[in-house]
Amino acid sequence: MNENPLLTLAGYFAMLSLFAVGGANAAIPEMHRISVEVMHWMNDRQFADMFAIAQVSPGPNIIIVTLIGYHVAGFAGATIATAAMCGPTCLVAFFVARTWDRFKEARWRMAIQAGLVPVSLGLIAASAFVLARSADNNIYAAAITATTAVVGFATRINPLWIFAAGGLLGLSGWL
Amino acid sequence: MNDSSRLHSDNRSATIRPSLSELFRAFAIVSVSGFGGALPWARRKIVEQKGWMTAEEFNEAFALSQFLPGPNVVNFSVVFGSRFGGAPGAAVALAGLMGPPLIIVFVLAVLYAHFGDLEVLSRILAGITAAAVGLLMAVVAKMAAPLFRLRRDWAPLIAIAAFIGVAIMHWPLPWVFVVLAPVSVACAWFKR
Questions:
Q1: Chain A residues with beta carbon closer than 8 angstroms to that of B71
Q2: pLDDT tens readout for residues B61-76
Q3: Can you give the residue ranges of every domain in chain A?
Q4: Considering CB atoms only, which of B132, B137, B180 is closest to A55?
Q5: Nearest residue in A to B159, CA atom
Q6: Of A23, A28, A139, B110, which residue is 20 to 30 A from A17 by alpha carbon distance?
């Protein structure tokens, strides 16, 4: 099979962008499935690394697709993956935004809104599960995860501090 | 265009219309300040500093962006930009939001391609990932709490089904979505 990787990237991410209800975090398991399990573009650790880089770099977390695209096919891959992930959903947003206000009180609109929340909740939980399996290789990593989960839930601390603490603990050689 | 005089006028009125260059600059600034989610920064800029939207209008536009598929903040930039400047407004807001982060992440991608195998780097990234996963779990807990409080008994079942399908069974997301989303919407319609 001599498939063009750029076409594969474009096809996968364009499709994914239309099903990622709940944003970048909901799309992580599918990206992992495709990049690691189906296409073998990278291993588990490399995927987790890219997730971490996307978290600590400024801007939308969806920027992880830029990193995946670059890993697969250089600058062209990065550009195409990003455009494919943002293009279709931007077109949908543009056209829906013009008609949405008219249906503010419509019952079907509230049903769709309420119905999609549990789906994205399940998808984001799946993201946490998939990433925890590649990140929490030992008791120390699992302890960091458990601690940040509690701190993140109980406080409104800036995530940057948590990332910094995690990075320092990693650097110290405990993981 | 000098809007400094209007900046300090009535913040409650949302009648100030940004120009295209203001739209671009606002979203560019939001994008690079928005570590770990750009929403609070977008709200501060648009509602509190510029007065381009009231808090209610902002919530409404953001609810729409969350409901649409794809990255929420990206959707928001399109929804917001198109409201004030049609298609050019949407394009300019999107370019502002994505441009600066893309430049930064291109640099990071090149660095990772060269140094990704360094042990020091991979230790740091492992620590960050472990922390980021914890934050993701906190997000899940925060999202789940109101579902249980509302006693929508079907909602936790849908969430668990989506989790099992994607995380345990490794089924493709589109299949899981096409099956679960209609069921979930139907439950919301009939049992609310």
A1: 20, 23-24, 60-62, 85-86, 89
A2: 877 887 888 888 899 9
A3: 5-103
A4: B132
A5: A122
A6: B110
